[in-house]
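Subgroup meeting minutes
Present: P.N., E.W., G.H.
Scribe: E.W.

1. P.N. recapped why we're keeping a running log of single-chain structure predictions: easier to compare across weeks, and new members can see raw inputs and outputs side by side.
2. G.H. added today's entry (279 aa).
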Amino acid sequence: MRITIALPLLLALAMPAFAQSTSIDLTDNVPGATGVTYLDLARAIAPDLEASDGLYGGTLAMAVRNLVFAEDPPVSHLPLSFYSASAVAFTSGGAELVALLLDADAETTGALGASVLAIFDPAHPEAPVDIADVASDQHTSFDEAALLPLGTGDDALVVSSSHFNSSQGYRNTSVLAMLDGKLVELASIFTLNESYCGLEREQIPALAPVPAAGTDRWAPFTVTVTETTSLETAECDLPGVTAGTRAASATFSWNAATGGYEPDSTALEDLMAETEARF
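Output recorded in log:
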């Protein structure tokens, strides 16, 4: 069942030590694929894709599952509609792949929308390695830092979905990776920003890989969410609210038995529970 504002905390936003631009023009050539453009990749999943006054529209030729709302059934014939696209090159199992992110038609996909992430091997651009809907809220994009190194030969992809109203901004960030040839969500985190009655509260997540001994494929990483609260004026009575800064942090390590990352504390879960009470 989809939740518009909050998600169960599977825990972990990925932020590598570097940022990477993901904006592309669909007529750009795909690195590592001679004579192939991003439009060619897009048409590999939506053969009828065409542009009209700069707006691209088409229909996915295959059913697509949602990684965040895993209980939802796959959607067939999902309509695409977008003016711009984004893509990032990343590594999986030592292989160089390309992740292409395209938006679905908001008028037909409901309040949360849909954003299709298609993974391609540039050496075989005729079909995607895998494809999934990665949207968990209205506006979905690669994070400013789109990649997180996960050890020898693997990167995580970082995708964020958000929406806002007059006083609160909601953001879900998913950490994705290729596992056994399939896109999986390794972890996610929810953050909330607020601005009302002279109150300004901001939650900022920051993550970094932890160097692993040897050549571990799935290296650990840390996530720290820093919450800063300021009170500019006394416009409203805000009992229990104090200005200041605090942080919640955990280190996530790969568990081979479960095939996923697990935190070493409940600090982020505790912060999430407290944040949910402010909705």
